[in-house]
Specification:
- By secondary structure, this protein is an alpha/beta fold.
- The strands form four sheets. It has an eight-stranded mixed sheet with strand order 12-11-10-13-14-15-16-17, with helices on both faces. Strands 1-2-3-4-6-9 form a six-stranded mixed sheet, sandwiched between helices.
- Strand 1 and strand 2 form a beta hairpin.
- The two termini are 32 Å apart.
- Bound molecules: (2S,3S)-3-hydroxy-2-methylbutanoyl-COA.
- (2S,3S)-3-hydroxy-2-methylbutanoyl-COA binds at residues 24-25, 27, 63-68, 80, 101, 103-105, 108, 127-128, 131, 133, 135-137, 139, 271, 274.
């Protein structure tokens, strides 16, 4: 017997209440929609019912259409649009009672109702664009009629949820309550039972100026902007076409997006992100940290402290030197102030976050806290020294975490009396912005602690991915191969600006040379010096970056790196001195420079990621291939509309990628030894994701 996913309750003084009850997020799959349609029909045909209320169980309205259903054969039976038309064509008022979240098709269902009542604290949004889609159930037609074209443009093209308060100000929500939202909606419906107010009948406020500006701002369609352009086209229909024709246009554009590679890739990332939190042998945890200490007040220490305070945690920032601590305090205050001035942070929330931050020059401050994150210099001896000290001071149940980006977690844990409580929490710069948290498990790290770290990531609004302990873990291990190929291509004749342009056109916001100038060449110089000790002597090695560092060209922080920078300006200016430096290194290394095509740059940089990514999966550093993609999308801004390096290789064709890598091996040698896993999958027609 099929479990009902909705209920109909007719005992509310003539106001019928339809409840969607399909955990975890009341997604509007085919069964839910079929039941909804049946309930709406019975309300419309039941004389005892004067009006209807639609709501959701488990504290949320709905997470929208069932994303699992996309790409599958269209189920028979009524669609969400059919339910909406039945409500609009019917003779009775419907009120949507919103609580928790109303996203995508969920909010569109509410828009087809005559009125919307929401509990304060509810978040509503048209998040389809994050899945490479557009609101395909009237969110480009009813929404602009309810809140005006420009506000609808922000919601549909931005994809960010808004608060119920803001939605009320815009006119999307008709009444707010702090009480029981269903009771409030039933009372509202009874009071307005004779006042139909269909969104489709309202005029669209606004003109095309916002549409044109949005088109200019949107990424080119072929570079991940397809959904944005189609959404704007659909919204334009609200201005230029009658409602029903504009709805057909919206549907046609929606279906093109649903079947597009860009949306398939973004939907893959949506589920991959959630899959990453499921680690075999690791118990689910609802751990929440209340207090923390961050040791090290540099760029990473400061960013991590903000991320913790943003997550509601009371944080003490510790550094040996009072001047360093003071500088961190000023930098953090400045960062919050600029976010506030950009209107992306409310004053009261900013003050709450600043109040959670404390500063100290004494390690004693760690004594009582739940979580300690070490973010000092990327030198093993310095980190070991810190861990010896915190091992003596920290609570027995405290989490001892290191933000190392490359070093051996086991070696760090070994200097403590509790290696099972030591874990890597590798944040990405800027740590208060980047969504990825690479959680590094040591040989002795307890499974419970890994579960707690995954829960901590969720508490911080980050995506936690568990990585094995090796040099560079998942992300930086692959990055080293990507950067190596970049440096080799420079020696062979490419320029920093050519490589950066190709990588930007591929879809990353920044190429490797603008990126290293931002991060600082000195950071990776320290890592290279350590790695050089282990590198086989005859193995090809590019001296370009070492030479830059010996000249003090550390990037933006010194006004010159691969580009030069005017003071106070971050715009990269190509520097002929750098090209001459590269030519001299090439001459010294006996490398004849040649014309390098964009295609060769793209393949060597991206396939270097793919090949090493396959090795990372094969040796278990990553639990699954999709984790590698999640790391690169959220840690290195790899375009989510390409799904990540491994998904990109799969859509390109593993055989073709493998053949190119074999060709590179013949031309460039051992660095291009094909990953055995990639070779096996490519020659057997296999998949990373099977
Ligand atoms: N469909 C199917 N499954 C969904 C889902 C959805 N819409 N939303 C969430 N899930 C699953 C998710 O995979 C996970 O499963 C579990 O629910 C909990 O999710 C016609 C075309 C709602 C804010 O973009 O943003 O409507 O891993 O871990 O942190 O125009 O999920 O446990 O097996 O994320 O509390 C538009 C997407 C769809 C919203 C809850 N909707 N979801 O966050 O839990 S397109 C969205 C979210 C559409 C119409 C169009 C979040 C959430 P599992 P979770 P959470």
């Amino acid at each position: 017997m099929m479990t009902a996913r909705t209920q109909l309750d007719l005992n509310n003084n003539g106001v019928a209440v339809i409840t969607i009850d399909s955990p975890p997020v009341n997604a509007l799959g085919a069964e839910v929609v079929a039941e909804l349609a049946a309930h709406v029909d019975s309300v419309l045909s039941n004389d005892a019912a004067v009006a209807g209320v639609i709501t959701g169980a488990n504290g949320i309205f709905s997470g929208g259409a069932d994303i699992h259903g996309f790409g599958k054969p269209t189920p028979s039976g009524p669609t969400l649009r059919d339910v909406q038309s039945a409500i609009e064509r019917g003779s009775k008022v419907f009120v949507a009672a919103l609580e928790g979240i109303a996203f995508g098709g969920g909010l569109e269902l509410a828009q087809a109702c005559d009125y919307r009542v929401a509990r304060n604290g509810t978040r509503v949004g048209q998040s389809e664009i994050k899945l490479g889609l557009l609101p395909g159930a009237g969110g480009t037609q009813r929404l602009p009629r309810l809140i005006g074209l420009d506000a609808a443009l922000d919601m549909d093209v931005g994809g960010e949820p808004i608060s119920s308060q803001r939605a009320h100000e815009l006119g999307l929500i008709d009444e707010l309550t702090d009480g029981n939202v269903v009771e409030a909606a039933v009372a509202f419906a009874a009071a307005h039972a004779k006042e139909r107010r269909r969104a489709r009948d309202l005029a669209v406020r606004g003109d095309r100026s916002g549409l044109d500006a949005a088109r200019k701002r949107a990424e080119p369609a072929e570079r991940g902007g397809l959904a944005a352009h189609y959404t704007i086209d659909a919204l334009e229909g609200a201005l230029t076409l009658p409602f029903d024709e504009a709805m057909q246009n919206e549907r046609a554009l929606f279906e093109k997006l649903r079947d597009s590679e860009q949306s398939k890739a973004r939907r893959y990332v949506f589920f991959a992100e959630r899959e990453a939190s499921k680690v075999p042998g690791v118990p689910r945890s609802s751990y929440k940290a209340k207090t923390a200490a961050v040791i090290g007040s540099g760029t990473m220490g400061g960013g991590i402290s903000m991320a913790l305070a943003n997550g509601g945690i009371d944080v003490t920032v510790i550094d040996v030197d009072a001047a360093l601590v003071q500088r961190a305090k000023e930098t953090i205050a400045r960062n919050y102030d600029s976010t506030f001035r950009k209107g992306r942070l409310a004053q009261d929330e900013m003050e709450r976050r600043l109040a959670r931050l404390h500063y100290s020059t004494s390690l004693d401050a760690i004594a009582g806290v739940d979580l300690i994150i070490e973010a000092v210099f990327e030198e093993m001896d310095v980190k070991k020294d810190v861990f010896r000290k915190i091992d003596k001071l920290a609570r027995p149940d405290a989490i001892l975490a290191t933000n190392t980006s490359t070093l051996d977690i086991d070696a760090i844990a070994a200097v403590t009396s509790r290696p099972e409580r030591v874990i890597g929490t590798h944040f990405f710069s800027p740590a208060n912005v980047m969504k990825l948290l690479e959680i590094v498990r040591g040989a002795k790290t307890s499974s419970e602690l890994i579960g707690d770290a995954l829960s901590l990531a969720k508490q911080l609004g980050k995506v936690g991915v568990v990585a094995g302990n090796c040099d560079g873990f998942i992300g930086n291990r692959m990055l080293a191969h990507y950067r190596r190929e970049g440096d080799f291509l420079l020696e062979e004749g490419a320029t920093p600006q050519q490589i950066d342009r190709v990588i930007r056109e591929f879809g990353l916001p920044m190429g490797p040379y603008a990126m290293v100038d931002l991060a600082g060449l000195d950071i990776s110089w320290r890592v290279r010096k350590r790695r050089n000790a282990e590198r086989p002597p005859l193995r090809r090695y590019s001296k370009v970056q070492d030479r830059m560092c010996e000249l003090g060209r550390f990037g933006q922080k010194t006004g010159a790196g691969f580009y030069k920078y005017e003071s106070g300006n971050r715009a990269p200016i190509p520097d002929p001195d750098v090209e001459e430096l590269i030519r001299s290194v090439a001459r010294e290394s006996g490398i004849a420079q040649r014309e390098i095509t964009d295609d060769e740059i793209r393949k060597r940089c991206i396939y270097a990621l793919v090949n090493e990514g396959a090795n990372v999966v094969a040796d278990g550093t990553a639990i699954r291939a999709s984790d590698v993609d999640v790391v690169w999308v959220y840690g290195y801004a790899f375009p989510s509309w390409r799904g990540g390096p491994l998904r990109y290789a799969e859509t390109t064709g593993l055989r073709a990628v493998y053949d190119d890598i074999v060709a590179f091996q013949k031309q460039h040698g051992v660095y291009w030894t094909p990953s055995p896993l990639l070779a096996q999958l490519a020659t057997s027609g296999g998949s990373f994701f099977a």
